[in-house]
Amino acid sequence: MSGPLRPPWSGPLGLYHPGTSVVHRCPPGIKLVALAAAGLTITLVRGPVSAVVALVVALVVQAVARVPWHRTSRGLVGVLVTALLAGAFQWWSRGWQVGLEIAFDLVSLVLLATLVTATTRADALLEVLARAARPLRHVGLSPETFALACGLFLRAVPVLVQASLDARDAARARGLERDPRAVLAPAAVRMVAHAHATGDALAARGLGED
Q1: CB 67 within 8 A of CB 18
Q2: Which alpha helices (H) appear in the chain, and where do they start and end?
């Protein structure tokens, strides 16, 4: 008997939650610049105090944005586990200050990034990327193509996750959950098929042609 059905994860571009908060109304470009500045600050400013402040700021933004926790937590579960393991290792090897800093910084960065995608429509984010990539025209690359590539990459993330989960479940049903080939090979086949289907769909719409 199979386990409970998992709700499909729609990926980074599927987190958008409509709202009227000040975070929702902030222009996408400003949010991306603020996210970049926050990432740079969190990376450069060291110490457990700054890490705690960064996490508090991220939680305040979460509260102001009024995005339901279940929308953001779906993308944070893996990060929380990673942060816990990394923080515990650093705590053991370099002291509690470094461990706390590493764990809190990681959670803060991912939470802030998640809030940007949760309060901004995907098409608005891709439009900002296209505008930012306008200088690429001078080297022969279309900004729209660059934005499309970013969107396709982000859309492929949940497909990869789902393919891996399905392959793992199929391997477990055959008693092969400890055989990496039983998981990796089917997942790779599905991802290649997805890539071919995406390429055919783009070609059918004339994208990529001169």
Answers
A1: no
A2: 22-25, 28-44, 48-65, 69-73, 77-94, 96-118, 122-132, 143-173, 180-204
CB 115 within 8 A of CB 65: yes
Q: Is the pLDDT of residue 1 over 50?
A: no
- List Cα–Cα distances, 147 to 19, 132, 179, in angstroms: 25, 9, 38
Count the neighbouring beta carbons within 10 Å of the beta carbon of residue 82.
14
Residue 110 has pLDDT above 50, yes or no: yes
Query: pLDDT band at residue 56, thresholds of 50, 70 and 90?
Result: very high
Question: In the chain, what are the domain boundaries?
Answer: 17-120, 121-210
* pLDDT value at residue 52: 92
Read off the DSSP letter of residue 176. -
pTM over the 0.70 mark = no
Alpha-carbon distance 15 to 201, whole Å?
A: 24
Burial 9-44 (b: 16+ CB within 10 A, else e): bebbbbbbbeeeeebbeeebbebbeebeebbeebee
